[in-house]
Amino acid sequence: MSDAPEPAGSPAFDDLTRDIADVPAVEVITTVAVHLMSAAAVNLGLAEDGADHKDLDEARKLITALAGLVTAGATEISNFHAGPLRDGLKSLQLAFREASVVPDEPGQGPGEKFTGPVFG
Description:
Blueprint: H1 13-16, H2 25-43, H3 50-53, H4 56-99, H5 112-115
Helix pairs in contact: 2-4
């Protein structure tokens, strides 16, 4: 690393980072889940100018990762936090099914290997 001085007005790296040891696990898990949800929604075309960003292959990957995280983390973060994440996941899974030209069979959709079949 360089010994060059920080540019004037630029905060030091240590000032920009939060000590990860001080971040509760529930906060890390829910933050990651929200990022996965947001990215999946964009790739499902649910954002403004949605058709420009629609990519169902990417959405499938994100929803599957979200399902794994929510399923594995639910017992660790309590129902208070897990409930809304499960609801958001189910909404994304249903939106994926609607957006698909040829919908997956029940139990074969994104994340359903972790959640089981999702029905509207």
